[in-house]
Q: What sequence folds into this?
């Protein structure tokens, strides 16, 4: 399947991920309140540590190794079953440790923790890495779409009062299991049953552990924020941060979708030794990430003051400030998505990736320790932004001799200037029209028109390329219809 089709499949699902929460998040925020949202986020953050230690970096490693063997069905099948059995064994051990942890210690919200633990079992049978490795994004998109729609229907039917928090957690947790079972149906069409020896399993342990170290570091500054806010302040502050983080991450899905598509492709190209082709892909990918990430960052900063009160409810006014502060991570993660996800990891320079995310984790933990007790969710947002740029900055240092980053960024100023002008118009609309849904819609429409108009005036290469590609596709569709 072509890169363009894979990206369209992936980005279409990411758009679904963005649209569906627009339906559920306002409803859930009002029903469960900041404390309910906070309890869900806090308990889930703890569960993520058990998932992390259960999967020991296997999924990231598996995607890469599957991409290597995707053209040899026997090796592909042997590799799949070896990795699956290893992951199943390690995750079940982690689940047993969790059960011991939950019953030995006197833990608040024990019932919620137990329901959240379904996610550990979900991780045990997760085989999405197989489909990503062979670049079959259609299966993942179809599966996830079905599960998301069913979850939303159940949420509106079953969640009515604050005490329904456990139902909300159960629906989200169980939907993951259902989604995995749907994927297994397709898996047997791709791989054969193979007899697996202990040696087949053992040889994947050390390579997986190399990916485990960066996963630990990433988890520190992805999940630890919510854990530390919950421990050092209160669950309401976790709720403010969780909703801000959710909005920013929803926006990020559009930007990072290209990374999920490009990683297995570049791994496969690297196996053939074509470094020039890799650099061509990286150049286009980096330019596209800037093309999307910069306006999305400025757009979120521009609409948040008017958006949060009507979307989440006035209880979440503080969430607007958190969004404004945390939005720059969109650029940092977009760049890291190319430098690490599309270069360092696919070509096997995992040690450098590990160093970059470890420095980010250390930075995040230290800053959280000082900022969260005094500034709560606002402090955590500042810490996250600084940590993400530490990660990206370190990766830039590592690849500086391989890639001419200044050449990659030659249109950066066009995206930044266009986005800045867009931001000014968006804020003026917000100030004059006040808090309501129509204001947000107007801000988005005018913002998009302003950004694309500026890029047309400045003659951005990526903008011209995308317009040409759309025109060509339309011509092809027109000819096919005739």
A:
């Amino acid at each position: 399947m072509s890169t363009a089709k894979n990206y369209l499949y992936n980005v279409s699902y990411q758009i679904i991920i963005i649209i569906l929460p627009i339906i559920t998040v306002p409803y859930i925020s009002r029903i469960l309140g900041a404390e309910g949202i906070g309890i869900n986020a806090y308990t889930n953050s703890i569960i993520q540590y058990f998932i992390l230690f259960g999967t020991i970096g296997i999924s990231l490693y598996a995607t890469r190794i599957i991409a290597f063997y995707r053209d040899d069905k026997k090796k592909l099948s042997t590799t799949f079953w070896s990795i699956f059995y290893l992951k199943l064994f390690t995750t079940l051990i982690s689940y047993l440790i969790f059960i011991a942890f939950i019953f030995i210690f006197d833990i608040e919200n024990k019932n919620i923790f137990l329901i959240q633990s379904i996610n550990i079992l979900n991780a045990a049978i997760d085989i999405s890495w197989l489909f990503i490795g062979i670049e079959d994004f259609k299966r993942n998109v179809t599966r996830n779409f079905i599960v998301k729609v069913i979850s939303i229907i159940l949420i509106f039917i079953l969640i009515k009062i604050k005490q329904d928090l456990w139902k909300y957690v159960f629906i989200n947790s169980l939907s993951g299991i259902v989604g995995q079972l749907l994927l297994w149906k397709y898996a047997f069409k791709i791989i054969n049953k193979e007899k697996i020896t202990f040696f087949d399993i053992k040889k994947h342990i050390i390579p997986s552990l190399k990916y485990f170290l960066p996963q630990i570091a990433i988890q520190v500054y992805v999940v630890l924020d919510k854990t530390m806010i919950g421990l050092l302040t209160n669950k309401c502050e976790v709720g403010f941060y969780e909703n801000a983080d959710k909005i920013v991450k929803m926006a990020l899905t559009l930007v990072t979708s290209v990374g999920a598509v490009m990683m297995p492709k570049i791994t496969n190209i690297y196996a053939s030794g074509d470094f020039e082709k890799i650099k061509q892909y990286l150049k286009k990918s980096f330019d596209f990430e800037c093309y999307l990430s910069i306006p999305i960052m400025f757009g979120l900063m521009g609409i948040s003051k008017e958006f949060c009160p009507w979307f989440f409810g006035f209880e979440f006014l503080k969430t607007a400030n958190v969004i404004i502060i945390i939005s720059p991570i969109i650029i940092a993660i977009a760049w890291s998505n190319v430098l690490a996800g599309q270069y360092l990891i696919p070509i096997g320079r995992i040690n450098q990736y590990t160093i970059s995310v470890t420095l980010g984790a250390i930075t995040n933990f230290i800053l959280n320790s000082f900022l969260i007790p005094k500034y709560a969710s606002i402090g955590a947002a500042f810490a996250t932004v600084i940590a993400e740029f530490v990660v990206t900055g370190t990766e830039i240092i590592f690849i500086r001799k391989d890639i001419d980053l200044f050449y990659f960024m030659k249109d950066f100023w066009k995206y930044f200037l266009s986005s800045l002008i867009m931001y000014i118009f968006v804020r003026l609309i917000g100030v004059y029209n006040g808090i309501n849904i129509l204001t947000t819609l107007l801000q988005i429409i005018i913002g998009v028109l302003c950004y694309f108009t500026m890029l047309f005036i400045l003659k951005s290469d990526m903008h011209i390329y995308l317009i040409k590609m759309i025109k060509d596709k339309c011509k092809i569709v027109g000819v096919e219809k005739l």
